[in-house]
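S., here's the first fold you wanted:
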Amino acid sequence: MIQDQTTDIVTTARDAFNKGFTKNMRYRLKNLKNFIKFLEENEKEIIESMYEDLRKHREEARLEILIAINHLKYLINNVRKWSEPDMAEKRWIDLLDGLYIYHDPLGVVLVMGSWNVPLLTLVPVTGAMAAGNCVVIKPSHTCPAFGNMLARLLPKYLDPICYPVFLGGIEETNQLLNQRFDYIYYTGGATVGKIVHRAANKYLTPTTLELGGKNPVFIDSSADLEMTAARVMWGKCFNSGQACIAPDYVLCTKQVEKEFIQHARTALAKFFNNDPRCCPIVNDFHFKRLQKLLRGLNVVIGGRVDPLDNCVEPTVVSGVSLTDPIMQEEIFGPILPIITVNDFKEAVNFINRGEKPLALYIFTKNAVVRDYVIDNTSSGGVTVNDTLMHLIVESLPFGGVGLSGMGCYKGKDSFDTFVHKKSVLVKNFSKIIEKANEMRYPPYSSRKTDILAFLLKYRRGPSWIWLFYFSIFFIGFVVGFLIFNYFALLHYTK
């Protein structure tokens, strides 16, 4: 029964794609604009669903809606230009030919959302839509209220044949992954990411995996530690620390640690008024996991928990070593370990001993330190002197590397991810070109090959676009000169 349902959804979407519905630019723009209407007209329902699933603060939910709308507007303003064929660089032998790169939509795309930021995982959906694909939208079963809201309301704004919402748990998801898609986008943890990647291998389906990891924060002694503490603790406590790009641990010297803890304590008191219930955790499993990670650690800020309501107070722990359980997995909660190092080079060595993180945060006023850390580490993205904020810049790609993921999206990358760049060469029947073509025809000779090698040789030189600009300038100069002389002649003949 489930198999039949998933087959019907994918088959129907593929039929619609093959009929060219989603390739039409007016159709794409209409649905992207309707997506904005969905977000604006149903803000209350969206916020309520996220609160029911995650107890997410209303203003955090509003911020997610704003980010999604901004990304949609960015797509709408640029998608026509992105969809036009690009002109490729020409060689001498190609001067009379057309060299183009077309942007073909891939077909039927599966986007699997995460539970921690269910709304922002719709951003890749909009990128796939802008690229001209049909999209099967699979919300996380861990957020049932959000998924039910999406399945109930989104079809009122988007074509449900081309953009169906599919609900279900693990069994239904496995059945969905048995279907043949042209692209799969998944947001979540590495364990499930590996399962998705294995399923994609059956049909050699390309994938983007936006996963996570232990995102380090290096704090240099030159940083403004009061601002640093506020920005780090905000990033750690946003969505109760349940974010793939949340700061995971801090690296700093002993002296910086002492000052940072003081400022972090002040910042948290200002943020939450010492309310131990300010960071609700999504479910019992994750609450108990965080409780277990706290055992035996030196708590310097916070540490209180509420088992009745699955809340963990924002917590800072010090004296942590690499072998402690809290350093063996992504924390995904409002607990921040501090590990002391002697300098920025030791911090870089520490980071490079682990897996490549999804995000890296550097706090420093020293350009030498900043550039050294950036140049000698590998991560999905970097924010200097803040946390999380690189995610909301529409023009910056977002994605992981190594175990933190593969592929990227956001802005133009959301479009490029879901298209195939198709090479198109348009030859003509010019007799001049055919004389050059004769060099490749039998009977072969050394002379022919030498001439062909000369014509095909790659030469670095000025782009042909500058020749075009020069021609326009020259024509404009000549026309201007003639007009000037014409009026001058009229003046002197009066």
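And the second, which I think is the more interesting of the pair:
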Amino acid sequence: MAFTGPRVAMIVGAAAYAGFMVVFLFPTTWLLYFLSAVLGAGASITWTGQGNYLARCSDPQSISRNSGIFWALLQCSMFFGNIFVYFQFQDKTNIDADTRRIVISVLLGVAVLGIVFLCSLRQVSDNSADADNELRENQTGWDSAVFALKEAGKLFITKDMMLLSVTFLYTGLELSFFSGVYGSSIGFTSKISATPKEIVGLAGICIGAGEVLAGGIFGIFGKLTTRNGRDPIVIAGYVLHVITFFLIFINLPNSSPSGNTDDVSYIDPPKPWVALIAAFMLGFGDACFNTQIYSMLGGVFVRNSVGAFALFKFTQSVAAAISFFYSSHLGLHVQLAILLVFGTLGTVCFVVVEWSYKRRGGGGQIEDHKE
């Protein structure tokens, strides 16, 4: 980011996404692992770059609206992508080579088109009149990079960022849960449907629908968020997730993440409509957290939005990696308990930071933030 700025960083990161897709046209084990690592590196600069670009394009009155619109557009991929894959994989027990090539080619084409649009973005200067940012912009090469790294390190140990890190951890845990564990658990629960794999695709569509609807609502009513604060939305997302975890707990068996099972939970047999409602609520609640995190980082931490978004993605990715590791060893009920604990802690920490910001005179106005 220090060398290229947000626009070029997003283009490079998007190229890593496209490169990862290519390997599925010529599947090779070692290449899949290698490009997975490349994808992770690309994702880090993509998310940091788009967060910084969003902050640069926003002001105190528009940051909440822009965050909601951005999230809704982003999550359209889950909605339309899952619909496409659902119909392509319908009635298939094994994915043949022709189907794989069609799916990957379409997704790769969309990725390339996205890169073209990224190249057409206008250059946006930093809208913060902050002395530190001016110093950083006057520096070049490694000096600028070292300065940015030091500033990110200082930001990480501030009270507010340490508290928000707990919220970031929760978003990483629930991200890996709904993107990997939940769909697999539905697909492995044989009694939920005669064709449980089809329910997985529908669940993905429902998650995407919840994400898009929430992002659209928060984008349209962004002024209300600016006036009333971000904490009511985060609390609403937490309540939705608590209800969701309970529905999953009573609907899916504890052994469902481990492989195909005939076990049942408290609902016998498991109900597909309960699984789909839970999927929608997972997506809606996730959008509640992420849109407000983006609004927070792009507004409160305007002095160092690059460092703030980098720390967000770093912490979230660490949590996601940990979750993917333990998800193959722990039962569904334990995983839900972990999510419940971190969801509670993350919500409390976010609310504390938001209230602290209001007490400092923030509210709808962005003030310099430096602990």
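Why I say that: DSSP finds 13 helices and no strands in the chain. Confidence is low (pLDDT under 50) at residues 128-135, 363-371.

Talk tomorrow,
H.
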